[in-house]
Amino acid sequence: MYIVLYSFSVKPNHEDSFIEGWKGLTNMIYQYEGSLGSRLHKKDEQEYVAYAQWPSKEKFESSGSNLPEEANRFRSLMKTSCEAIKIADKFEVIEDLLSTKLHD
């Protein structure tokens, strides 16, 4: 599995439109490009971090050409909501011990 770590500096009072754009684009990348999804985290008031999972580095690097025109609306929402969008890092997963279920 391959991970891409993103950093977002969101403009004040643009958090809702940023999240709408991030969710929409992430869902489309999952549906049309074969990603394994992504998680968004709030670091502080205007800083967000997301990591996207991909089946492989090759799948990530070859992505981008299968998205429909509608994806541009979500990209635009994100771009206009942010001061900066950066790929902070990329790396391979060695072990995965995350669980999606809660303990009793």
From TrEMBL:
UniProt xrefs under Gene3D superfamilies: 3.30.70.100
Name of the protein described by the UniProt record: Antibiotic biosynthesis monooxygenase family protein
Q: Which residue ranges does the record assign to the ABM domain?
A: 1-62
Q: Which UniProt keywords apply?
A: Monooxygenase, Oxidoreductase
Q: What class of enzyme is it?
A: oxidoreductase
List, alphabetically, the Pfam families matched: ABM (PF03992)
Organism domain of life: Bacteria
**MF terms in GO:** monooxygenase activity
The species is Hyunsoonleella rubra
Q: Any idea of its EC number?
A: 1.14.-.-
